[in-house]
């Protein structure tokens, strides 16, 4: 992968991270503003369910930010774009679709097949 391509992915990852962090700040502000005493038990339960879903979504995004940071670190260390299992280059199309990918498509498919087999046990 050449320097121009690495810079493209670095910028893509940084923009994605900034968007996630912005969404997270908005959620925190929204949750602070939405804190209120709801007398109807059904409405309160609905609000709590919505809040739990939002928090679960934010937790997933927090984990995604960690993966983005890891990808950015791999770019800096010259390891970005190579499969951690086979050492082979990951296709640019795969990286464009999933810039945090750490495995080639073939390695990922093998990994998922093994997971499914072991999960059924």
From TrEMBL:
Metal-binding found in the keyword field: yes
Tagged with keyword Cytoplasm: yes
PROSITE patterns referenced in this protein's UniProt entry, alphabetically: ZF_DKSA_1, ZF_DKSA_2
A biological-process GO annotation: regulation of gene expression
GO cellular component, one term: cytoplasm
Domain DnaK suppressor protein DksA N-terminal: 5-75
Gene3D superfamilies, alphabetized: DksA, coiled-coil domain (1.20.120.910)
MF GO annotations: zinc ion binding
InterPro entries documented for this protein: DksA_N (IPR048489), DksA_RNA_pol-bd (IPR012784), DnaK_N (IPR037187), Znf_DskA_TraR (IPR000962), Znf_DskA_TraR_CS (IPR020458)
Ranges where the Zinc finger DksA/TraR C4-type domain occurs: 78-113
Ranges annotated as dksA C4-type zinc finger: 83-107
Keywords: Cytoplasm, Metal-binding, Zinc, Zinc-finger
Localisation: Cytoplasm
Family to which this protein belongs: Belongs to the DksA family.
Role description: Transcription factor that acts by binding directly to the RNA polymerase (RNAP). Required for negative regulation of rRNA expression and positive regulation of several amino acid biosynthesis promoters.
Assembly notes: Interacts directly with the RNA polymerase.
Record-given protein name: RNA polymerase-binding transcription factor DksA
Organism per entry: Limimaricola hongkongensis DSM 17492
